[in-house]
Amino acid sequence: MVDSRSLIQKLTIESEPNAKLAISNINNVNVTPGEHLKFNNLDDMGNGYFVDIKDSSKAASFDATYTNLQKLTYKGKKITKVIMHFSTASGYWHDQYWHAELANNIYYGFRSWGGAKNIRFEWFYEDGSKVNFENGTAYLTVASLNTYLQKNQWGHERTTVISGGKGLALYGSSVSLHNGNELYSSKANSIDISGRARATDGPDSKPDQKLIDNFFPNQKDITNTNMPYKWDTASSPDRYYGAGLIALNGSDLAVIIDVKNDDRPNGTEPWNAQWANFGTIIPETPNINRPELTVHYHHTNVALQH
Fold first, then answer.
1. pLDDT digit string (tens) for 195-219?
2. Each residue of 49-86: b (16+ CB within 10 Å) or e?
3. Which segments constitute the Glucan-binding protein C/Surface antigen I/II V-domain domain (predicted)?
4. How would you classify residue 239: left for phi > 0, otherwise alpha for psi between -120 and 50, otherwise beta?
5. Is the N or the C terminus of the chain less surrounded, counting Cβ atoms within 10 Å?
6. What's the pLDDT tens digit per position in 35-60?
């Protein structure tokens, strides 16, 4: 577990409203344009593309290439192109609804639905050379890792680091590191025990009886108690709460994006969607249970000789 104050960040990703996104090398998928994408069902994240599998009995893949990037830098040097290679993840579940929604603005990432996505990132400078990240200088924030644990939706949104980096848990976050490379929250972190959707709703929201009706008798035991309001909105200062980190090392990063629901009780419905958002603003570690700095003074009397 790391404290945000201890990290040195040399990678910067900011909003790229003029970025261009191209979907290419398509295999067993349909691609259609999309408008006014809302990956958290709240914030308008602009236009992009929908990608859907054609035949779920076969493998599928496509490349998402972002160009005309103006604000993405590493050690002050501009990165102008990023390629994300998507494919069905071998050994992971997927179905006929294997689906992705990608925003033209790389800052907002994408939404995944209906099964795991294997993704390999490549980064390129203006001269076409590949970026090679030095250990301890570049971190990706994996944000919006929701966990829903109700009868009608059970799942832990998860990012698993395969190569090119190391997963890190962020101090104060509900997300922890599992099995050495998996980032997700063990307990529910989006709907509180009063029936409020705390991840996107404010303090003036009211309990939702439909949510309450799908609670388990031990809902309090499987739900986090310290959820900030609206932590899963695009501009929230509390995005740390649903975030983990990936310390980059090398040129390519490979991850698997999926929803873990193999632990769901019998008779529950699986949750199989997530907003995958990779940024570089490391959320500030909150001042909770942080030890106070104590300074001890040792006085020494020195006799001066004249």
1. 999 999 999 999 999 999 999 999 9
2. bbbbbeeeeeebebbbbbeebebbbbeeeebbbbbbbb
3. 58-260
4. alpha
5. C
6. 999 988 888 999 999 999 999 889 99
